[in-house]
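Dear colleagues,

I hope this message finds you well. In preparation for our joint manuscript, I am sending the YcaQ family DNA glycosylase (Dyella koreensis) sequence together with its predicted structure, so that both groups work from identical material. I would be grateful if you could confirm receipt.
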Amino acid sequence: MSSLSPASSPTISLSLSQAQRVQLAAQGLLRAPRKRAKRADVVDAIARMRLLQIDTIHVVARSPYLVLHSRLGDYEPAWLDEALAQGKLAECWAHEACFVTAADYAWQRAWRGQREGHWAHRHAARMHREQREGMDGLLERIRDSGPVRAADFASENRGVSGWWAWKPEKRWLEAWFALGDLMVARRDRFQRVYDLAENVIARLDPPLDETAATLDHVALRRHFVLDSVRALGITQARWIADYYRLKPAVTEQELAPLVASGELLKVSVHGWTVPAYVHADHAELLGQAAQGRLRATHTVLLSPFDPLVWDRARVLAMFGFEYTIECYVPAPKRRYGYYVLPILHRGSLVGRLDAKAHRTEGVFEVKSLHLEAGVEPSPALLSSLAEAIAATAQWHGTPKVRLGRCQPSGIASALRALWRG
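The corresponding C-alpha cells are as follows:
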C-alpha cells in the first residue's frame, strides 16, 4: 500500500466504491449496529456527524429522529429530547437549524459573527430594526419570568397555518434564536422552549470552552473546513463549504497548507478529474478501504435531510443518485412522492420510497417504491429491503405495512410474501 504521508499530489488511489465506503464509515452507515442502542449513542452519533439537521415534517418520524434510527437502529426517540434538556446537546444555526454536541457549541457560537450573510440572520436583524420595541419587550419578559414557548402566546390567525401566519411572538422568538440571544432549553412535544442564552450555556455538559471565542476568522474557518472533511470521510474541495454553509467556497488552494501540514490527506479516486481529501483522523480507515477491507452490509431507509444525501451534487457524484426533496415541489410536478426516503443497501443507493406513518391505525404506508434503473431485484436485496421497511415500521409504532405501487411492479408480491413469512 502507498504511504499516507502528506504530499503535494495524491499518494493513494481508490475506486469509487472504495471512496463510497469511506464516506459511509465516517457517517456511521457502513454496517448495521452490532449492539442494542443506549442513551449515550445519541450524542456519539451526532458527534460523528458533527451536526444533526432539524426539520418538522411529520409524515414519518421527524428527520432528526429518523437520521439517528438509520445509524442506531431501535432506539428511544425521547433520548434526543433528554440529551437536549440535560445540556449534552444544543440547538443553533449550522448547516441549517441543527442539533450539535455541547462540546461543539462553542465553535458555533464563536462563528455567529460570520453568519451575517445567512438568510436567517439577515431576516432576524431586519426584524429587530423594524420591530425593536416588541422584540426587546419579549426578551425582557423572558428575563423576568423565565422560559417560554411560542404556544404560550395567543394566535391572531386561528385556523391559518404556515410560516407566513406565525404570530409576532413566534417570529420574535425565532429571530432572537438566530441572533443568539435566546437558545432552546428543551423541547415539549417537539415545541421549542426558549430561554436566555446565558442560562442554557450555564447548563451545558461539558461546559462551554471559551477558547474558540478568542480565535480569528481564519482560525475558525480552518476548524470548520477540517471538521467538514472529517464528517464527510472523503470529499472533493467543492463539497466542503456546504456542510457548514461556509462562504466563500473552499478551494484546492485553501486546502494545500492543510495537506502540507498532514492534517488532510490527498487521494485520487478513479473517474474523478480532481483530488479527494480525507482527514488524518481517518488514515486507518483510508488504508482499510485501499486494501478492500471495508465491507458495506447495512440496508436502511434514510431521511431526506440525512447528511449523506442533503448535498444533491455530492450524492450524484458519489453514488450516482439523482435526488430532489419533493415535499417542496407542487404536487402535480412530483415524480416520486411527497416525503421520499432514499434506500441504502450495502453501500449503494438502490431506490427510494414515499412513506406515511398512520399512527392511530398502526399502519406504515409505503405509497410507492422505486428501484433505480439497472438495480437487480435479487432475493438478497428484497429480503434486506423487506427487513429494513419492517424494522422502520416497527420503530414508528406502526408495525402493519401497507404497500402501494412498485417499480418494477413484480417486486410487490415478493415483498408481501416476505412480510407474511
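For the figure legend, we might mention the following. The first strand starts at residue 13 and ends at 14. The first helix runs from residue 16 to 27.

With kind regards,
E.M.
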